[in-house]
Amino acid sequence: MEKLSLYERASLANQYRIRSRLEGDEKLGKFAEILERGYVTLYPRVFEWISDETAEGVGEEVEDIFAMYRALERAYEAGKEPPAAAFHPRFDGFDGNNDPHFGIAGFLIDDLGLWAEQRERPRNSHSRSTLGIYRKMLTIWNELGRPFPLTQEHVDKIAIGPA
């Protein structure tokens, strides 16, 4: 963790004191105290609720995957059929334990109210392999020019089986 300046420590401590009083949360007051006293070894506790930054591009990839599945779902609604061997013809979530896409997907759907058609779909695939399959499908969709609406031939190419 980077060293905090005296100004940063004082500013953060003040914010934690204000939040502690407003929210009635004693733990926030303890965070202020940690910062005020300069207990560097305890700083990680102050910031434990802040996630590591997600790699740039993950959110865009999630939205690209959702857009592809939107195209597939519209094709199914129009009577197109996924191939029998398709591994993930419908969105089956991201790996909730190992994939940063999982958190961003939930935020887009639940907090921002986007991608409404995904609200009822599974969120956690419990599988590390789904992202790789989505990426293969997305590559094919991109190579086809991201068509919308999809023909049966497009569906057959995009909704691939396990390779």
Global geometry: elongated
Q: How many beta-strand segments? A: 0
Low-confidence stretches: none
Q: Helix share of residues? A: 40-55%
Task: Considering the chains and any ligands shown, give keywords for the structure.
elongated; 163 residues; mainly alpha
Kindly describe this structure.
It contains seven helices and no strands. By secondary structure, it is mainly α. Helix content is 54%, strand content 0%. The protein is elongated and about 65 Å long. The longest helix is centred in the middle third of the chain and has 20 residues, at 58-77. The mean pLDDT is 91.
Would you kindly provide a brief summary of this structure?
With 163 residues, this protein is mainly alpha-helical. The protein has helices at residues 6-23, 26-37, 43-46, 58-77, 100-111, 129-143, 152-158.
Explain the layout of strands and helices.
Blueprint: H1 6-23, H2 26-37, H3 43-46, H4 58-77, H5 100-111, H6 129-143, H7 152-158
Helix pairs in contact: 1-2, 4-5
